[in-house]
Amino acid sequence: MESVGVYGFCGCKGKSKIKRDSRWEITAAETAPTSAYSSPARSLGDTGITPLSPSHILNDADPVSDEQTFLVVVAIDFGTTSSGYAYSFTKEPECIHVMRRWEGGDPGVSNQKTPTTILLTPDRKFHSFGYAARDFYHDLDPNEAKQWLYLEKFKMKLHTTGDLTTDTDLTAANGKKVKALEIFTHALQHFKEQALKELSDQAGSDFENSDVRWVITVPAIWKQPAKQFMREAAYQAGLASPENSEQLIIALEPEAASIYCRKLRLHQMIELSSKAVVNGYSASDTVGAGFTQAKEHVRRNRQSRTFLVENVIGEIWSELEEGDKYVVVDSGGGTVDLTVHQIRLPEGHLKELYKATGGPYGSLGVDYEFEKLLCKIFGDDFIEQFKIKRPAAWVDLMIAFESRKRAAAPDRTNPLNITLPFSFIDYYKKFRGHSVEHALRKSNVDFVKWSSQGMLRMSPDAMNALFKPTIDSIIEHLRDLFQKPEVSTVKFLFLVGGFAEAPLLQQAVQAAFGDKCRIIIPQDVGLTILKGAVLFGLDPAVIKVRRSPLTYGVGVLNRYVEGKHPPEKLLVKDGTRWCTDVFDKFISADQSVALGELVKRSYTPAKPSQLVIVIHIYSSEQDDVSFITDPGVRKCGTLRLDLTGTSGTAVPARREIQTLMQFGDTEIKATAVDVATSKSVKVGIDFLNY
């Protein structure tokens, strides 16, 4: 059997040891004097830790066997543009209650959820969240507003930051920096307080946090650091703790939507692609009209805020056979997530067929296009200054645009008017020395006119053009997905998320894929993820098989083989020839992993008295990885084994620490045990601070 060594900090210095054994060899990874080549492992000066040969175990027992029972599941859909919570009592899993109606709101915009906006006082204390934050900020004197920290749409920072850490900053509307972790913690704390207050009011007595299982939704395309960041913020907000981590579940947004879509009755959905009448609408009805009528139906039935779900599979699955496939397109404010699932009957368990894909193609893209249009008309320099000098007025302008954006439709003929705040008109005149109307005439932007009522008048084609780049990106991404063999025989495409309400997106998806599969939109589409996240919290084992988005592994030492290994990887130590930087793969990108399937490695400390082992984890989007120095391979985290308190009075000469890693859940998890004493070893996987 080939001997290997893992790079990790072993806490011992000085003379390296080689321990001879049929299965174990330990050596120090020091720089070979014969080569000037510098590898990450050699520069670490770490002692090699030897794993046993890799193995996979399929754990037949239910991996989600929580000792703790909860009275209620509360799911928080933390969205880029809007957020909300819903809950269900574990004794009444068929009833999902959506949060109490929030104060405030915009004309023509459903306020079942609240904007993801947060306001801090000038001395950086939490003030308010959602409509309350936005309305208070709007009413502040312009000079006073510059001192307050107002943040919106900040969730995208977790997706776009490549080197996310607990120290990552966000920028408030006034240009001041604030720690992202602090903002996310405030937001989650606010939801926690609101939810517990509502539960206490309903129960007639104080509801304890320990009675609640919390679920937080994140995009499926988020990498591990962003998921860990949300968990860290939730711990700081007091939703759960590292000691009681099972109280919090991270749910993937398209998975949550998929779980809910399984339960749909015919009257709870609109089908865009079928000639058959569904929910009273036929395909000959315009997309927008059918959807508007459906939304009215939902509004009339909203007073109770309680939704009943089937405790069996919904009617839509009556047409599905074992092994049928469907795609969930979760189009939100910041990202679009695509997930492919296969149904397993009769229980209705789900299997992921292709790793989650997507990108930053949410409705925010339309806002960016509008901002680019304003820059074209009024100049980049003015818009940049206006945002800094009049931050509250800029927020007002984007609110006005949001409400008109929702009125965009393929068949619209009359123009859309967007009110410009008085301070925009006034500040522009001071800044440029001429009027807004003059700027519009001079800009040669024909499709935007000035109205004497103080409004920008956009033609429907102009508004539709703002949607085009974002919608084109979504359609192109879907086309790529449909090329994959796993997706070729899809029966349904579910369009969910807030952006799915846009008739322009509905029409584009219908035109591109209506002949390939049936396109379904759940009613009250903006709440699909929230309701599905509650169902996931009630039964986290419903997704039985997932796909790994990346290849994960560690760097190891292997015996050097002449002709097989590159000469620059040769390390000679005490007469033994080693190949450094070998990538020991835990799991491959797009590999199918069952829930409860574990990757096992065993490590032994370099000396019995050692208390901590830290092993570096590497990842790649490629499957074919040989060395940790290959292009595209990056260090992404650490596996830390804390051996304090595991050894008895007699420390064995050789300790074996068996580590089990689970890749089939929404987060990568690990457990470890000291084989000699059978005591559990504290183990942590850190993707944020490594």
TrEMBL record:
UniProt keyword annotation of Transmembrane helix present: no
Keyword Cell inner membrane: no
SUPFAM superfamilies in the record: Actin-like ATPase domain
Name of the protein in question: Heat shock 70 kDa protein 12A isoform X4
UniProtKB keywords: Stress response
Gene3D superfamilies the record matches: 3.30.420.40
